[in-house]
Design a protein that fits this description.
The chain is mainly alpha-helical. The protein has two domains: 68 residues, Arc Repressor Mutant, subunit A (Orthogonal Bundle), CATH 1.10.10; 129 residues, Tetracycline Repressor, domain 2. The chain is built from ten helices and no strands.
């Protein structure tokens, strides 16, 4: 503690009453994100999210300037909370097995968060923190499996792009079809199997291209 602060404490007699605490902040980034996730990105509006927070939409405008910024904030927070599977430090299990695990994680992630795809599949829509997280993941996989960073970047980007696009198409269409639950469950199971087969073929093909050195730009 600095000396002048100690002296101030000694000079004050009797001690003053502590200042009354103000009301806790109602609008925080975390609360906005939590409310937006609960509502779902496609349904986020200023009025709806403000109501969920128990504030006016004008008060919300003081923290977020536009609907696009509001949705971007929610999307960024969703992405930051995604626990991307880690590769094994010793590289055991193999890169193919890891990429399969990675696709399963993406599939679950996209299914749980409708409307997120444009923010993670289009580079211009991704925020800087999202890009940093992606880059860190690519570096981690490069180290874990002993491959150049550019190869890790291409592999992960290729797998993620196609997995996200297909998952978004499959799940967005499935939720709109007016089918009874039994039919929906059977069709979804069939689509899930085809999805896994397609991603397996993509992973095997991508690894083969790298092995042959046939990937342009690398």
């Amino acid at each position: 503690m600095r000396p002048f602060l100690i002296q101030e404490k000694q000079m004050i007699s009797p001690p003053k009453n502590p200042p009354t605490r103000g009301r806790p902040r109602t609008i925080t980034r975390e609360r906005i994100a939590d409310a937006g996730i609960a509502i779902g990105l496609p349904n986020v509006t200023f009025v709806g999210l403000a109501a969920a927070l128990g504030v006016s939409h004008m008060a919300l405008y003081k923290h977020v300037p536009s609907l696009a910024a509001l949705k971007g904030l929610v999307a960024e927070e969703i992405f930051s909370r995604w626990d991307i599977p880690k590769g094994r430090v010793d590289g055991s299990g193999g890169l193919q097995a890891y990429l399969t695990e990675f696709t399963h994680s993406i599939q679950t992630f996209v299914k749980a968060h409708p409307g997120l795809t444009p923010y993670v599949i289009r580079r211009l829509a991704a925020t800087q923190p999202m890009l940093v997280k992606i880059d860190q993941h690519q570096s981690h996989i490069a180290r874990a499996y002993g491959i150049p960073k550019e190869q890790a970047r291409w592999l992960l980007a290729t797998v993620a792009f196609h997995c996200i696009a297909v998952a978004d198409t499959v799940y967005s269409v499935a939720t709109e079809e007016p089918k009874v639950n039994a039919e929906r469950a059977a069709e979804e199971a069939e689509m899930e199997a085809e999805f896994r087969q397609g991603m397996h073929a993509l992973i095997v093909g991508a690894l083969l291209l790298l092995e042959r050195g046939e990937v342009l730009g690398l």
